[in-house]
Amino acid sequence: MRTLKPQDYLDEVYPGAGISTKTVINWIKRGKVRGKQTVTGRWLVLVNEKETSKVSELVQMMEASGI
Hints:
By secondary structure, the protein is of the alpha+beta class. It contains three helices and three strands; from the N terminus they run βααββα.
């Protein structure tokens, strides 16, 4: 398990999707994405390595097929 800033998470998992970091923070608050807030108020996304590679692979397949 590793942590990413919301923008880094978007760049890695949803490149070029046009999703804002505020959306990622809302996903964390609603429990759609695992994350936590630091004592300084910053939000971090908790990423499982296996999940990230599967999502990235799916995005690459969709891009290659023109979806």
